[in-house]
Amino acid sequence: MKKLLSLSLAVCFFSLPSAAAGQADDGAPAKQVGGVQASIKPNIIFIMADDLGYGDISCYGSKTIQTPHIDKLASTGVKCTDYHSNGAVCSPTRAALMTGRYQQRSGVGGVITARAHRHTGLPLAEWTMGEAMKDLGYQTAMFGKWHLGYAPKFNPTKQGFDEFKGFVSGNVDYQRHIDQEGYFDWWQQDKLKDDPGYITDLINNYAIDFIRRKKNQPFLLVVNHGAPHYPIQGRKTPGFRVTGKSNRQQPKLKTDNPKALYKEMIEVMDEGIGNIVTELEKQGIRNNTLIIFTSDNGPAKIGSAGNLRGHKGQVYEGGHRVTGVFNWPDQLPSGKTCNTPILSMDMLPTFLAITPGKKFPKQVFDGINVLPALKGNPIPRKPLFWQHKENIAVRDGAWKLVLTGKKTELFNLGKDLSEQNNLADKHPDQVARLTKLIKAWQSSVAASSGAKLHSNP
């Protein structure tokens, strides 16, 4: 296993429950928790859309896009109204997801671009979700988008995942599998190898195949969709990118109705998610499988953030408050809403907390175990931070301070979720207090991270 993170790095200590708490790590019987033996490892499927806005699926208010399968996961599980991506763009959220820490700590403060950052990636010294779950005896797989390093040495298979099929850039032609800089980008393990097809269907089919093969073993399955990130292509939209040409040289994709294709992209993803759930049921492992559905950041301009202000690339709510659905029949309530703030970086601490097995040394995370909140129990949260380039936001309870260039904005999210009423002039004490929190946080993440790969690409 890679070197454990230094205990001096961050703010939150965490250790796994031990057999003494009723969770056996030696095969011995364990106490019942929610009707399930605590010694039984749950399967975990984490599904993440790309650039999906808070208002882009029907159970979160869309009137035009129909997502019955995601809706059913929400109606029979827990729908989160306060779930957030750690970043307002792709790579930072994925780094936080993998490490359970603010992405700035691993140096991934911005997008690992296909044009300028092909030599960099998530540092191999990081202890990732894949490695953590492998250490607990899980079969691990990631299918779809990686975006945490282009070179084979940064491949998911070098970061704890037994299996990887997909792409490593920010986006590819959905038919031809070519990235925006003209590189062919479809991988099987750490080798380039094509698999013809529409990428959303391929990713869903890989997931189904993995479930069939690993049904008798505990598994972590990460399904990172490309949809609905541009290029806006449906199943029948022809490929258009060619190898050897950068985005500026590529032919333009001409479509008659981009909104209709955007709708199709999301609905095809939803169809495949329904097929994944069906396969779990067919294999008899649905009840002990935790399924999570979310997005890596807010929508591009073609999408919808609902009533939230902002979009992808902004630290207003629309840039990072996204859909968050948790469904686990054995352990979570059905048809409930969770209003506790939850972030991408909470996933790894939560997965470790729900997984019986060996006890790790105290491990440093910024994220926390959110299972109690999903079960309806209030949990405290420390101040939360978002940063994209020079723009930064901090939230403490209902108060949120947004600093964008020379502009200072203060909002009370409890009364103004759409961030329309700037209270900075009325509450200078809150501005001063929250600004101090930002400075302390910036010093913390700067001190604990290694070489800054691309904090502001």
The top-level CATH class of the largest domain is Alpha Beta
- The name of the CATH superfamily of the largest domain reads Alkaline Phosphatase, subunit A
Which CATH architecture of the largest domain is right? 3-Layer(aba) Sandwich
- What is the radius of gyration computed over CA atoms, rounded to a whole number of angstroms? 21 Å
Look up the CATH topology of the largest domain: Alkaline Phosphatase, subunit A
Query: How many DSSP helices?
Result: 9
Number of domains: 2
Q: What's the rounded overall pLDDT mean? A: 90
Question: Roughly what fraction of the amino acids lie in strands?
Answer: 15-25%
Biggest beta-sheet profile: 11 strands, mixed
Question: What's the helix-strand series?
Answer: EEEEHEHHEEEEHEHEHEEEHEHEEEEH
Q: Report how far the terminal alpha carbons are from each other.
A: 31 Å
Please bin the fraction of helical residues: 10-25%
Poorly predicted ranges? 3-38, 450-457
Question: What descriptors fit this protein?
Answer:
single chain, 457 residues, alpha/beta, Alkaline Phosphatase, subunit A, Arylsulfatase, C-terminal domain, 2 domains, eleven-stranded mixed sheet, four-stranded antiparallel sheet, globular, disordered N terminus, disordered C terminus
Structure description:
This protein is α/β, with parallel strands linked by helices. The chain has two domains: 39-382, 3-Layer(aba) Sandwich (Alkaline Phosphatase, subunit A); 390-448, Arylsulfatase, C-terminal domain. It is 22% helix and 19% strand. The protein is built from nine helices and 19 strands. It has helices at 68-75, 90-99, 129-135, 199-214, 258-282, 317-320, 347-353, 371-374, 428-448, and strands at residues 13-14, 32-33, 36-37, 43-49, 78-84, 139-145, 163-167, 187-188, 191-192, 219-224, 289-295, 321-327, 336-338, 342-343, 363-364, 384-388, 391-396, 399-404, 407-412. Strands 4, 5, 6, 7, 8, 9, 10, 11, 12, 13 and 14 form an eleven-stranded mixed beta sheet that branches. Strand 2 (32-33) and strand 3 (36-37) form a beta hairpin. Helix 4 (199-214) runs parallel beside helix 5. It is globular. Mean pLDDT is 90; it is low at 3-38 and 450-457.
